[in-house]
Amino acid sequence: MAEVTLEDVNKVYSGNVVAVRDMNLDIQDGEFIVFVGPSGCGKSTALRMIAGLEDISSGKVFIGDNIVNDLQPRERDIAMVFQNYALYPHMNVRENMGFALKLRKMDKGEIDRRVNEAAKILSIERFLDRKPKALSGGQRQRVALGRAIVREPKAFLMDEPLSNLDAKLRVQMRTEIGKLHNRIGVTTIYVTHDQTEAMTMADRIVVLKDGIVQQIASPQQMYDTPKNIFVAGFIGSPAMNFIRAHLERENGGYVAAFGSTRIKLTREAIGEHPDVGEYVNREVIVGIRPEHIEDARLVEITSDSDCVQVTPQVIESMGSEKYVYFSVDRELAAHTKSMEDMTAVGADGGGSTDDFGDLMVARISPESTVREGEQVKMAVEASKIHLFDPETEQAIL
Ligand code: ADP
User: Fold this and answer.
1) How far is the CA of 43 from the centre of ligand 1 (A)?
2) Does 67 sit in the ligand 1 pocket, CB within 6 Å?
3) What is the pLDDT at residue 356?
4) Is residue 17 in contact with ligand 1, taking CB distance under 6 Å?
5) CA geometry: angle 251, 280, 268, nearest 5 deg
6) 10-residue averages of pLDDT along the chain (397 residues)
């Protein structure tokens, strides 16, 4: 087991494609780190540089105390698990798992001991004599993990290892990899484009976009305090709603106004962010997670709730919840008290035609009786809203 450290790591492919830019990262011994981001953001390239499968254009990679830039993959004492687990078809499970150790000329007794132990951890003891073709996808992926475990590496590197499995198996294997990590505690770097995998598995998540690290944080921190609009929109499902709004002062506090809606910024939402004042009378982007909007009839309205009138366009019943889609710009009307305060912002709410301020989604209780086309009052948890600078796209709150 070991720490893995990246110092100012860059990867420039021929044709001046910068795949990874100035990446700095300290991975603790035993930590489970997930690199996540959309396709092409550089996550595989970053992983492959750590593995030694890709040259590092500049910067340093350390595994433990050693700089590994010039070491071959097999000299780095790491084990990779890929999406295509490529087991040897003519070998049984036991031989597949022990093969790397045999190549190292390890003592047969020791190979057997390690294979048996890994098989036990992965619950594949029953399959040790089978050939890969007699195994299910999930069992094969377990053998691939077993092959990595027996090497007792300093770190596991996993590149979308579950993406070939069907949805149910993916969820199951996700849990198993988590348990495996708890049990053997080896430093693990896991690449995925799936934010749910990242949220459920990681100790810390690294969000990448265009080769640049956007934020490094625990899943909860990433959800509660995304640093910019990209992270805010990427983490969470359905994605956060973004609306262009105007920040105003009101009764010694602040409100974010859009259309005829005015959301009070609570002390809790503002926290220790004195910069908010700089945005008064300026445009901001308000971020509201779908789960922070609820059918007002089902919640106790407190001074922290801001209610808005909306007309649902589409309602999807998921059983455990309902997704309600409505368009925000022209429709939202503030609750009566705030209506009296309406001033500067035009009733068309700025009428933006960009990504912000079209269709919003609320994730509400299945008990709600809202219907498509019928106006309903929704309560927004004002203490949970986010504010972003429209130019830099960085979080203000
Ligand atoms: P991800 O794993 O996040 O999908 P990659 O790390 O595979 O992204 O790719 C990052 C960027 O580098 C992409 O723009 C991709 O097109 C580019 N890239 C990847 N491999 C090569 C290569 N061998 N040659 C040139 N460009 C590459």
Assistant:
1) 9
2) no
3) 58
4) yes
5) 60
6) 93 96 98 97 97 97 96 92 85 96 94 94 93 92 92 94 86 89 94 96 98 98 97 96 92 84 80 81 95 93 72 95 83 34 32 56 96 93 92 92
Q: Is 45 in the pocket of ligand 1 (CB under 6 A)?
A: yes
Q: Which atom of ligand 1 is nearest to the CA of 211?
A: 10
Q: How far is the CA of 177 from the CAs of 145, 146, 289, in angstroms? A: 9, 11, 29
CA of 19 to the centre of ligand 1 (A): 6
Instruction: Give residue 303's pLDDT.
Output: 56
16 lines ligand 1 (CB under 6 A): no
- Structure tokens that stand for 277 in this block: 């004042």
Residue among 9, 12, 13, 195 to mutate when testing ligand 1 (max atoms within 8 A of CB):
13
- The pLDDT assigned to 305 comes to 58
Q: Going by DSSP bridges, is the β-strand pair 78-82/155-159 parallel, antiparallel, or unpaired? A: parallel
**How many residues appear in the chain?**
397
How far is residue 26 CA from its own chain's centroid?
19
